[in-house]
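Incident log, structure service

09:12 report received: a user says their structure output differs between two submissions of the same chain.
09:20 pulled the input from the user's history:
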Amino acid sequence: MRMSKQKVLEFIKSHIKSHGVSPSYEVIAKGVGLSSKSNIHRIVHRLRDEGLLDLKPYKFHSIKLVDRSVQEISRL
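09:34 re-ran on a clean worker, output below:
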């Protein structure tokens, strides 16, 4: 995972833990020091494609973390 994807994922986790809701793309961009919301959109969708996030289209606070612990345990 590239550093920017890892930073975005960690920021989302931290924001949800602190605020109880997922951040907007604008909040993520400011939080990780990127200037473009389109870059955040691209990164978030890559994280979704990798199974790390779930997105609910057209919903506010639509980013959900995916619990991968069951998948990782089943690989053992």
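09:41 both user submissions now match this output. Likely a transient worker issue. Closing.
09:42 reviewer note: The CA atoms of residues 10 and 27 lie 13 Å apart. The longest helix spans residues 3-19.
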